[in-house]
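Shall we go through a protein fold together, starting from nothing but its sequence? Please make up or recall a protein chain and show it to me in full. Go ahead whenever you are ready, and we will take it from there.
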Amino acid sequence: MSNEQRNALFRALHRLLRPLVRLLLRNGIPFAAFADLAKYVYVEVAESEFSIPGKKQTNSRIATITGLTRKEVLRISTLENAESMYSVEKHHRGARVVSGWVRDSRFHDNDGQPAELPFDGHARSFATLVRTYSGDVPPRAILDDLVQVGIASIEKRGRVRLLSRGYIPVNGANEKLGILGQDVSGLISTIDHNILQGATNPFFQRKVFYDNLPEESLVPLRKLVNQKGQPLLEEFDRWVSEHDRDVNPQVTGTGRRAAGIGIYYFEESPDKETP
């Protein structure tokens, strides 16, 4: 890497860290905790992705490429990763249930909209929806999650109503923070891929940005994004779900890959942080 590239990377890292550090400080996460986690991830990635082909990765090599001491690498390597998955799997399952509710006509009302569902009892029930799109997870666990984060509600006679057409937590701070890790890591992975292979096999990465907008334009802009973005994501969701073997076990093919599409809106003061 040239000095120019290294400087560009550090400038990008500085801008990336500003909103992250703001979020950490707001939630009481001190620098020492962040530093320990950064060390852990350095060792984790060096061990799994930067070994020499045909050779076992050693603590000495990990120390060399990360800049950590061998003693620190050994200490980190012996730590248990008890919370490595956090609640990501729960989010994926909840998202699949919401997606099925939105697009599967078996769970729609006469107007073609997601129906209020009885919790259990017959074919068009919330329990059936969960079994169809989330496997063997107890329907009550999924319902509790969706209600907690404000995506669903329990109405009269125990019927379940969908409040949001996407898995976007309204009430649950923990769930929103979990999505932070998923969504931001996906964007960074796309940028990394495009730097390495952009000339031959680029991933789609675009944005629209202007930095001299009047305040009055923001409300209609947010409305436009919601109106145009949600149907587009639902169209992508229909296509991808048809090829997902968890949703359609009859799908054939080799290997196992994860893929997705994200759309996000942002606004800020340009004199502080301009993308």
Observations:
- Strands lie at 152-154, 160-162.
- The radius of gyration is 22 Å.
- Residues 88-162 form a domain with the Arc Repressor Mutant, subunit A fold (CATH 1.10.10).
